[in-house]
Inverse folding.
């Protein structure tokens, strides 16, 4: 139960993080490989503090992680965490399939009911 609740809390953070356009752009940039914070911030018209807040949200959502740079051991590089995105994608696919099946069943039901009703021509004759 605790493990399930923890996963749900992470999923809540993932969807909240993905709700922001700038954060989605940051994730897209990280798909190409790890970046330093300044490299990630480069194309965005926002302060370093603003970028840092977005990075914090993405880190808390476990969408990215900070890894110490091998060059100097003091700076960090940011990497995408694919597993968390995969879990969010799985959740979406599961619910998409569920609703697709429900709506398909509803469509079949409505078509069957429509076929059971007498046509307008046969009602006029009576």
């Amino acid at each position: 139960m605790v493990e399930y609740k923890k996963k749900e809390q992470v999923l809540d953070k993932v969807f909240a993080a993905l709700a922001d356009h700038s954060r989605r752009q940051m994730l897209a940039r990280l798909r190409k490989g790890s970046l330093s914070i300044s490299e990630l911030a480069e194309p965005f018209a926002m302060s370093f503090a603003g970028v840092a807040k977005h990075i914090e949200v993405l880190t808390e959502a476990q969408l990215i992680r900070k890894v110490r740079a091998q060059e100097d051991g003091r700076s960090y590089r940011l990497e995408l965490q694919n597993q968390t995105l995969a879990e969010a994608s799985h959740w979406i696919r599961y619910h998409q399939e569920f609703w697709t099946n429900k709506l398909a069943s509803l469509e079949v039901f409505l078509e069957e009911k429509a076929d059971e009703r007498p046509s307008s021509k046969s009602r006029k004759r009576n």
